[in-house]
Amino acid sequence: MGRPGEIIRILIWVNAILYLASLLINPAETKWTMNPFAALSPDTRSLLMLGATGTFPVYQMGNWWTLITAGFLHGSLLHILFNMAALYHVGQLAERAFGPFRMLLIYLLTSVAGFALSLVGGVRLTIGASAAVCGLIGALLYYGKRRGGFHGKAVYQHTQGWIIGLLIIGFLMPGINNWGHGGGLVAGILAAFALGYSEKRPETQNLRMIVFVIAMLVLALLAWVAFTALVYRGSLGRLI
After folding, report:
1. Options 46, 76, 111, 130, the catalytic residue
2. What are the TM regions of this chain, as residue ranges (predicted)?
3. Distance between CA 108 and CA 232 in Å, rounded?
4. Could you report the per-residue pLDDT of 120-149, keeping only the tens digit for each?
5. Confidence category of residue 230, pLDDT binned at 50, 70, 90
6. Would you say 109 and 68 are in contact if contact means Cβ atoms under 8 Å apart?
7. For labelling alongside 136, which of 93, 99, 205, 239 has CA 20 to 30 A away?
């Protein structure tokens, strides 16, 4: 498949840095276990300080901005490895279909949409890049169906396989945010419909500038949250 584009690499690095920060805020509470599903899990208070979302942070703490930040946090080593592997694979397909900036816009919008639907579903606390990855899968599903031809059919069938896998994981594994996955998937289809894809609607300079500004604002928010969390980590005991 080749090397991923620069934007995908940046996304992976940002996720990795935020995961490392979540372990450093309260390292004494990090879970060191042989259980692969819980190994190197940051504690809940650290994740709340870094912007985990859900009904508790949003409704009870008033932190609506967590709908943006939660997509860059992860609850264990396996969690981030799985999501980044999926982003590495799906992101390259989406980048080719939509262009790097439009792909990034879909990624960010569908992440927020997935977490917003999680509020409707009453999910108390949730994190992870999977809502955004599902958004890219939804966008690729639309692209494959709309484009048609040999390539379009191959992409469509490939994304169907991903969706089936997500359904199996969602029903078999505990703690999976199916509201976030479903919301991201549907939002990805709608975003691809609204924004189009490269072969029909090439990226414009205006679109790139808008996405660049949005991305800088998101990075600024993440940097501010990480900085304040590390500085005020002594207040963990008073958080909840």
Report:
1. 130
2. 7-25, 64-88, 100-119, 125-143, 155-173, 179-197, 209-232
3. 27
4. 999 999 999 999 999 999 999 999 999 989
5. confident
6. no
7. 205
Centre a 10 Å sphere on the Cβ of residue 209 and count the other Cβ atoms it contains.
11
Structural contact between residues 156 and 145, judged by C-beta atoms closer than 8 angstroms? yes
Is 118 one of the catalytic residues? no
Show the domains of the chain with their CATH numbers.
6-238 (1.20.1540.10)
Residue 108, helix vs strand vs coil:
helix
Indicate if 130 belongs to the active site: yes
Q: What mean pLDDT, rounded, does the chain reach?
A: 92
Residues forming a β-bridge with 41: 31
| Residue of 46, 181, 198, 235 marked catalytic | 181
Q: Each residue of 24-81: pLDDT tens digit?
A: 998 777 777 777 777 789 999 999 999 999 999 999 999 999 999 999 999 999 999 9
**What CA–CA distance (Å, rounded) separates 104 from 98?**
9
Q: pTM for this structure?
A: 0.92
